[in-house]
Amino acid sequence: MRFVLLLHEDEQVWARAGATERADHVRRHDAFSEAVRARGELVGGEALSAVAAATTVRRDAESTTVTEGPYAETVEQLGGFYVVDLPDLDAVLEAVALLPPYSVEVRPVVDLDDR
Amino acid sequence: MTTASEALSAAWRDHWARLLAALVGRYRRPDLAEDALADAYAAAARVWPVEGVPANPAGWLRTAAGRRVLDRLRAEAVASRKEPLMVVEERRRPGPPLPGDEPDDGAHVADERLRLVFACCHPALSPEARAALTLRFVAGLGVPHIARLFLVPEATMAARVTRAKKRLAASGIPFAIPPRGRLDERLDMVATVLYLAFTAGYAPGTGPDLVRVALAGEAIRLVRLLDELLPGRPVVRALLALVVLQHSRRDARTRPDGALVLLPDQDRSSWHEDEIAVGLAVLADVPDDVSGLARDYLLQARVAAEHARAGDAAETDWTAIAVHYAALDAHTRSPVVRLARAVAVAEAEGPQAGLALLDGLDGLLPHSHRLPATRAELLLRAGRGDEALTAFDDAIARCANGAELTHLHRRRLAVADQQRTAG
Q1: Where do the coiled-coil regions begin and end (chain A) (predicted)?
Q2: Which strand (E) or helix (H) includes residue B387?
């Protein structure tokens, strides 16, 4: 079963992190990847640049509006994502426990094959 | 009672949990499995009285339910082809399972029903969803009954059960028993739903039978099994004391015609003394300083123990009970607890003090008939008979339980007569 993991955190945490903390983050992401590969597949994933670089496009039937900034202004922002293929939610939760302390939204991918 | 209906209730008691577990294991779709099995039992209720009870009832039910699951899976496959095609890359089939992927066979939890309870109590489900699923899956209770237990309208509960079943399937939540070392993580959730199941058996809000001794007894059996599986857990010990003490009064709670008998009027010689002794002994060993859910059950068990100790109604130590309820009220902030506390305080200090505690509850318990019924009794004792009649009318309008409704009508009639005589 495929899941998208949306990783949210306060951007300031990363901005303020020193070299040791950053190295620790990288180690945790490696541990996560390893755990996922042990039981399934790491389909993909990216770290996102800060929301200051974001552009939001809103469309309706008539018009297109482009604004500077993220879709929603919140303290914790979407900072990265993974796509994983794992047997079930418990396997996902165990792997996520290895990541740095983010708020992670786990969303199963709509899979027309399995319906 | 006919042979067919005896066979049906035996089949429910002996096979429901095992059949459900088998269907879930086979098709990995707990939502479909539960619907299909309920349908199969409904079909049995129609077919068996006419065509006779099959030689192997469990096999008959399994075949009927399996066929229904397959029908649903086929229908879903057809429906999904009609949906607008989305760009989804060809999905690779998963390879052979790795060692860590082998589903836990759950052999460390031997009882089928207890295994279902643990499976329903996944932390990724909301507390309401866990409880609703357990009552549906493990006890086989209908939606109206569950709705009454949660004090919500039927439509709300129907939507909640449907959503919970969809979420199980859609969110990838494994319907499985956690490994032995992680059972404790679900202990509070399991204790909560077992107590709800017990309550469901003890005083259902709907339907003709006030006491469903079988369901309450089954819930107690599961609490005992839980106590053996995970010994010495305060939350389980306190819950065990509570349910054993409450259940010891089962034979005194209803008259032969099914009418409710309130605590003061109960024939205490029909309370089960041996069970009271067991409950009090278990309660005595629960530490005083427990917190969380264990504290909740401990305080409720202490209330039950005060009633159990009183040789007759007049001997009841209402002051002690009011103290336990005050602690419980502070601990839970639950309107249902406040209601019970008001009754105890009225006994200890008089009806005015009880009525004062009911202020502000109407908005929190908009569907409960017990709030106006309690208010009616307290108003009556405060000498405010006209207001009591109005409160009885409110209670009657909200009450859906046959036995309790009869009781309310009887009380209202008696009070109305009294008022006329006095006036």
Answers
A1: none
A2: helix B385-398
- Interfacial residues of A (vs B; Cβ cutoff 8 Å): 1-3, 38-40, 85, 87-93, 106, 108, 110-115
- How far is it, in rounded angstroms, from Cα A105 to Cα A8? 8
DSSP string, B212-227: -HHHHHHHHHHHHHHH
Return d(Cα B20, Cα B62) in angstroms, integer.
9
For residue range B174-187, list pLDDT tens digits in order: 888 888 888 999 99
Q: What is the span of the domain harbouring residue A28?
A: 2-114
Chain B contact probe: residue of A43, A86, A90, A111 with most B CBs at under 10 A: A90
Q: Which of A109-113, B132-136, B189-193 has the lowest mean pLDDT?
A: A109-113
pLDDT digits (tens, 9 = 90+) for B241-299: 999 999 999 888 877 776 778 888 899 999 999 999 999 999 999 999 999 999 999 99
Nearest-CB residue to B98 (from A2, A39, A93): A39
Q: Give, rounded to a whole angstrom, the gap between the first and last alpha carbons of chain A.
A: 12
Adjacency order of strands within the sheet including A76-85: A41-47, A76-85, A2-10, A103-108
CB atoms within 10 A of CB B90: 6
Work out the minimum CA distance from A21 to partner chain B, whole angstroms.
Answer: 30
Place of tokens 């209601």: B339
Contact between B403 and B254 under an 8 Å Cβ cutoff? The reply is: yes
- What span, in angstroms and rounded, lies between the C-alpha atoms of A94 and B361? 43
- The tokens of B326 are what? 């005050």
d(CA A45, CA A81): 5
Could you tell me the CATH number of the domain that includes residue A96? Answer: 3.30.70.1060
Residues in a beta bridge with A1: none
Task: For residues B270 and B279, give the distance between their C-alpha atoms in angstroms, rounded to a whole number.
Answer: 16
3-state secondary structure B154-188: HHHHHHHHHHHHHHHHHCCCCCCCCCHHHHHHHHH
